[in-house]
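Teaching assistant here, posting this on the class forum so everyone can see the example we discussed in section. The complex has four components, and the goal was to see what a joint structure prediction looks like when all of them are supplied at once.
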Amino acid sequence: MFVRVNADPAARLNSLGALGMESDSNPIVSLNEFTYRKGTEIYGEKEPADYVYRVESGAVRGYKLLSDGRRQISAFHLAGDVFGLESGSEHQFTAEAIVDTTVRLIKRRSLESAAESDALVARNLLSMTMDNLQHAENHMLLLGRKTSLERVAAFLLEMDKRLTAAGVMVLPMSRRDIADYLGLTLETVSRALSRLHELGILGFIGNSQRQIVLLDRRQLAGFDL
Amino acid sequence: MFVRVNADPAARLNSLGALGMESDSNPIVSLNEFTYRKGTEIYGEKEPADYVYRVESGAVRGYKLLSDGRRQISAFHLAGDVFGLESGSEHQFTAEAIVDTTVRLIKRRSLESAAESDALVARNLLSMTMDNLQHAENHMLLLGRKTSLERVAAFLLEMDKRLTAAGVMVLPMSRRDIADYLGLTLETVSRALSRLHELGILGFIGNSQRQIVLLDRRQLAGFDL
DNA sequence: CGGGGGCTTGAGGCCACTCAACGATAGTGG
DNA sequence: CCACTATCGTTGAGTGGCCTCAAGCCCCCG
């Protein structure tokens, strides 16, 4: 997906130095990697967008807030995902670690100069951004036109593709996060999951409500029009 | 509804002639320009994305459909806007002319090769795509978390910025289009507009319900949190 | 004029939200 | 290791905002 960034070792070292100066609180520096603790902010809306991030492990939520606290999560970023790429000089939404999360930082300026001289880097950047846009367009359809059951089904199928291992999907995010991603309340999400459980479409593993087995992907896909 | 267009631009220009035979108005304007009549499809989902389009005049809606007909319009493209830029080789949504619309076609391949050799072109492409992504993210917040009144207020402010001339905003799209853009029904949109009218926030010009004057942008912005 | 599409307005219904209680779980400190 | 607490999740009852269904108006356009 996005691999050619470290082609320039000088840029890599530069971003290391700059990052070291900024590490004041939670983040732990390990080369050009940071680890954020569960629930901590990686960057906030309106902050200068000097870095781009790649998730090494963990999970990140990107969201926007209304003045009265209503929240819309626009994307979950899992291992391998790149986020923080913006048009202007300021971030347009907030990014928070959902669980303890390690990210690799890339200085934006060095990325820009790499794109300037290497058309392959530029093409990858564009392709990544277009993929994000495509995801956003699909999500608009979900938010604008799907029922609660359809939304939850779509969510499960999306997560299934991205983080099912050994038949079990371990969700890093809470019901509230899911709700704010799907434009629902957490109660509605919970009810939809219970319903899918009753229908034999999914099962829970052990005591955790975050470990899910999809028993009938076919029927689930039937809810995702 | 529309003649399936060949990938070859020469064939496409030829089809202009064919179209001219079945349309009664003036179809061809200049070389790589094309005029679509009100309500006609510019391209459909799953069609090969061989061209990128720039709106010269008119208005275009881009939308996705669910199998049962529910529609979500992801963006309105007005004069000056570029649309049709996709990640894969196929279009991910349908584009239709809302009113008679003239577009300029750019062959995708030639754009790609231009980006390959000219970093400025590449940067503009990326910047444009990022702007689209930003719009999509704001729209997700609207669709997921805003009330009907807030959505209509946001819509009016957006259109006001883009197509108000001489104090009057002339909407090219129907109530149904607005509803499908905002994730509402046309009745709810109509009620919200009536409400804003009662409140003295907007007025209608003449007999048309599509010519709107914003009388109190301040108060309107108060609904857009 | 007659037809049709676009828009508004009203009445009633339903799906998701709100409010609330409770159970389960995980994190904390003794 | 256990008690304590906060957080998370489920479930129920009732409400409400938007949707559905329907009627009627206005305008455009033949």
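For the discussion questions: Residues 1-30 of chain B have pLDDT under 50 and may be disordered. The interface with chain A takes residues 64, 66-68, 70-72, 74, 85-87, 92-93, 115-117, 119, 122-123, 125-127, 129-134, 136-141, 143-146, 180, 182-183, 225 of chain B (CB under 8 Å). Think about how each of these relates to the inputs above.
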